[in-house]
Every structure is written in structure tokens, then in C-alpha cells.
């Protein structure tokens, strides 16, 4: 099915129906308890009730979209904007003026400012940093020692984002702070979203104090980065310079708050998502030694034994397919929301203005209606001769449309390079105390992945 054939109907369309209510609602709480208890199973089970279904979350009605074609239509339609509980809570904590939460003309202007740093032809300039960081991992890790994959993945993701996009030589100490701050902030934000107990989060409990301290440090860190760049008088060709030099629609410099919020809005999604994906890649390499071996052999055949380079990534077809398949089964971004700006329609169903709409890339990418052997880890499903079987929008981990992640090329290059560099040197085994079950937060990641590198 193409996007055109599921283009949202206008509200004038005849015979719009009300979407069916998803099964399992209980009085007062509706579907809330199910969503909180096991969000992944809940979202994955909605497809049997309809292509668009109504959910009751307490007194509120939320609409869930369950087919790839309709998620594409939703993401591409101007009738929906970024808004809803997820974004409100992000805005309150991370700032209201960054690209990830803005809408309308401000959003378009901000995308124009940041886009050049992420364009396909801009990525090779980041190759050396990505290579250095990928190989540094293999040198830090020693055979037989336990690798704490959470902190290591955060560390490398933050270092690559900060070194490539903000070009500072203030690394390690700050990357470490940023990793710890972000991990704490994201954990607390998720709790505040699913259990919105407002005033309770202001009480001086240790968890609240830790959250507030991390959030304050995150903002302080961003102020330090901006102030240092200004004080240096230098204007390297990077994203930070683009943000500092940006003008608003009247040609005036953008305000301090917007610069600050923009840096936050790029660093925060940039590190949490990549870090979570690296954790899943490590988990996959440990769980599927046959694919770890295939990646190793591919890297060797391409490099002839020299350290893998950024320029090799394009030739590493199986490695890339391992990354894509890991992202299919364990998408870092597992839930997305939109709000209808007008009375509109999706798939023949009426969506009223102001309605919150939700969908889950996790549910879409694991749906048996789109994928044969849907739960098998099968990187070969991405081979050119088989990829045609995948319905449009059934694999959109970076989303589509005007809110599509600007960093798809930047992220895929570093993920493939890291996977290649570590697999060339090691295979991995889980060790005692490791827990690779899925931890649901703002992103999906393993609870506590502990691995031992084993030299080939
Ligand atoms: C937006 C996924 C890495 C910066 C998004 C969205 C998704 C996504 C699905 C769209 C949200 C929506 O439609 O509502 C991912 C994944 C990543 C990744 C899976 C890595 C595996 C990054 C990195 C950066 C970044 C490395 C920056 C360094 C952003 C920004 C937005 C965004 C700024 C907001 C774009 C807008 O609203 O216009 N990302 N992302 N992401 N991402 Fe990423």
C-alpha cells in the first residue's frame, strides 16, 4: 500500500467511523494499568482490535494507530503536530525552544539550521572521530574483564556526538558527567510521565534530589560548552557554530535560551538513542555467536586484517544488516505521539481536533502481518532480494516526514563502524549478574548488560 492510497481523508469525507474501543478497558482506569504494567505487550496487542483504536487512559481518550501504512500517513500529514503528554513532559524538563519540541515556522527554521551538519555529504568529515572512538573501545576492553555495557555505550555515544557536533576538547570529564546526568534524567522523566504525581516529585526524597541534581548539571554543562566556545573566539565549521550564528525569521540573532535549548535538544536524543542501540547490538552479538562470526569474517574480508575504517562501512553489508535487524527488534524509540491540529481522519476513522495519537515502532516492526518469522533475528531479511517483501513504513526507526530524525546517516555510520570494530577483535559472553531483559523507559534498553570480551 502506498502513502497516497492511505492519504488522510478530509473531515468532509463521507461516513467517517469512530475507531473501535480496544478490548480490556476497566472502569475508571480504562487501559491505563495495562499500559503501565506491560507497555510493549499492550501496544503489540492492539492490532487485533483494528487499524485505529481508541484507548481510555483514565478519563482521557487516546487514539492508537496499528498499521505501517497509517503510521506513515500520520507522520506525513500536516494535520498532526508534535505534542501530547510525552512532549509536554520533555519540554518542561529540557526546554521549550529546541527543535525536538517546536512546531510550525520555528521548527522549520531550526531544521534548516541543524540539517547541514547531518547531511549525507557531511558525514565523512566525522569519520576520523568515529574511527578513533570505535577503536578506543576495543583497547579499553580487555579479554576476560567484565564490560558494563550501559556506561560504556553511553560514554561512546556521548563522546561521538559531542566531538563531532560540538567539536570540543573538553571530553572525558564532561562526557562522563553528561552520561550520568542523562541516564538519571531519562529515568526520572519516564517515571514522571507514566506516574504523574506532580507535587510528590518536589518532595526531598533521595530519588528526587538525584534527579534535580542531574537535570541542573545537564543545563550547567550546556552553558559551559556554549560559554567556552564563545570565549575561544573560534568558529569551526560545526553544529555549535551554526547554532550560535543562527538568525530568526527577521534576521536577528536567536536568543540565548533558544541556543541553550537547541544544544540540549540535540545532545539528549542523540546520546540516549545511540547508547541504547549499542547495548542491543552487544546483546545480539553475545546471543548470536554465528552472526558475530559472520561479521568478523566480513570485516576481515574487506579490511584484510587492518583496523576497520569509516570508508569500509559501505562495503560491510552483513554488518549493516545486523545493525538494522537489531534496530527492528529492539528499536530505541519504541513509542511516538502526535496531536491532531484539526478535525481529521485516518484510515476512514474520525479523529477530532486536539486528540492525542500514539503508535509504537516496536509493535509495528515486530508485527507478524509485516514480517515472516517476525520474532527471529534474521539480518538476511534486509538483503536486496528480500527487502521488497517488507511493507512500506514497517521499518522506520528514524520516523518519516518533517519530524524524521535528522541523524539517520550519522547514527547508522557510527553504529556499523562500532559493530565492525568490536567484532573484528572480540566475541562476547554474558557473565553472572547480567540481565538482558528489556527495560522500558523513554527508550528501550537491556536492564543491566554485563559482557566479557573473548579474543577470537
Ligand atoms: C528525532 C530516532 C539518533 C537527534 C527522532 C525521531 C526518531 C528518532 C524516531 C522522530 C520523533 C518523532 O517522529 O516524533 C533516533 C534513533 C537514533 C537517533 C533510533 C539512533 C539509533 C539521533 C542522534 C541525534 C538525534 C545521534 C543527534 C545527534 C534528533 C533530533 C530529533 C530527532 C534533534 C528531532 C527532530 C525534529 O523534531 O525535527 N529521532 N534518533 N537523533 N532525533 Fe533522533
From TrEMBL:
Its cofactor is heme. Residues 1-18 have a biased composition (Basic and acidic residues). It holds the Pfam family p450. Residues 1-21 are annotated as: Disordered. The keyword Metal-binding applies. Belongs to the cytochrome P450 family. This is Cytochrome P450. It comes from Streptomyces diastatochromogenes. The lineage of its organism: Bacteria, Bacillati, Actinomycetota, Actinomycetes, Kitasatosporales.
Amino acid at each position: 500500500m502506498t502513502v497516497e492510497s492511505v492519504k488522510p481523508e478530509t473531515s468532509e469525507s463521507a461516513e467517517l467511523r469512530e475507531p473501535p474501543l480496544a478490548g480490556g478497558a476497566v472502569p475508571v482506569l480504562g487501559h491505563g494499568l495495562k499500559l503501565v504494567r506491560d507497555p510493549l505487550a499492550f501496544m503489540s496487542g492492539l492490532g487485533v482490535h483494528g487499524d485505529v483504536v481508541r484507548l481510555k487512559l483514565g478519563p482521557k481518550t487516546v487514539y492508537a494507530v496499528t498499521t505501517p501504512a497509517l503510521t506513515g500517513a500520520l507522520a506525513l500529514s500536516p494535520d498532526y503536530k508534535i505534542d501530547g503528554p510525552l512532549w509536554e513532559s520533555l519540554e518542561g524538563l529540557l526546554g521549550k525552544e529546541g527543535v525536538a519540541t517546536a512546531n510550525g515556522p520555528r521548527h522549520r527554521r531550526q531544521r534548516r539550521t541543524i540539517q547541514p551538519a547531518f547531511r549525507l555529504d557531511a558525514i565523512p568529515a566525522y569519520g576520523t572521530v568515529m574511527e578513533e572512538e570505535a577503536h578506543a573501545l576495543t583497547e579499553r576492553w580487555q579479554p576476560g574483564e567484565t564490560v558494563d555495557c550501559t556506561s560504556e555505550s553511553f560514554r561512546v555515544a556521548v563522546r561521538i556526538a559531542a566531538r563531532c557536533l560540538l567539536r570540543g576538547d573538553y571530553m572525558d570529564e564532561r562526557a562522563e558527567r553528561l552520561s550520568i546526568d542523562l541516564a538519571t534524567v531519562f529515568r526520572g522523566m519516564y517515571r514522571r510521565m507514566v506516574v504523574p504525581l506532580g507535587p510528590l516529585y518536589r518532595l526531598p526524597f533521595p530519588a528526587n534530589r538525584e534527579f534535580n541534581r542531574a537535570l541542573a548539571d545537564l543545563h550547567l554543562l550546556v552553558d559551559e560548552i556554549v560559554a567556552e566556545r564563545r570565549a575561544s573566539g573560534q568558529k569551526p565549521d560545526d553544529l555549535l557554530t551554526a547554532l550560535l550564528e543562527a538568525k530568526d525569521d527577521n534576521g536577528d540573532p536567536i536568543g540565548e535560551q533558544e541556543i541553550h535549548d537547541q544544544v540540549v535538544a540535540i545532545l539528549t536524543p542523540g546520546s540516549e538513542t545511540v547508547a541504547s542501540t549499542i547495548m542491543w547490538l552487544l546483546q545480539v552479538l553475545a546471543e548470536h555467536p554465528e552472526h558475530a562470526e559472520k561479521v568478523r569474517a566480513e570485516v576481515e574480508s574487506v579490511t584484510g586484517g587492518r583496523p576497520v575504517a569509516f570508508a569500509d562501512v559501505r562495503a560491510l553489508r552483513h554488518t549493516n544488516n545486523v545493525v538494522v535487524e537489531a534496530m527492528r527488534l529492539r528499536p530505541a524509540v519504541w513509542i511516538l505521539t502526535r496531536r491532531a491540529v484539526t478535525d481529521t481522519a485516518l484510515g476512514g476513522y474520525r479523529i477530532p481536533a486536539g486528540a492525542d495519537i500514539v503508535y509504537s515502532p516496536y509493535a509495528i516492526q515486530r508485527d507478524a502481518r509485516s514480517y515472516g518469522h517476525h520474532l527471529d533475528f534474521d539480518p538476511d531479511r534486509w538483503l536486496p532480494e528480500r527487502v521488497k517483501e517488507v511493507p512500506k513504513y514497517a521499518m522506520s526507526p528514524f520516523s518519516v516526514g518533517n519530524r524524521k530524525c535528522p541523524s539517520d546517516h550519522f547514527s547508522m555510520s557510527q553504529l556499523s563502524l562500532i559493530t565492525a570494530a568490536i567484532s573484528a577483535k572480540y566475541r562476547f559472553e554474558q557473565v553472572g549478574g547480567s540481565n538482558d531483559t528489556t527495560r522500558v523507559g523513554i527508550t528501550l534498553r537491556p536492564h543491566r548488560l554485563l559482557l566479557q570480551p573473548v579474543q577470537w
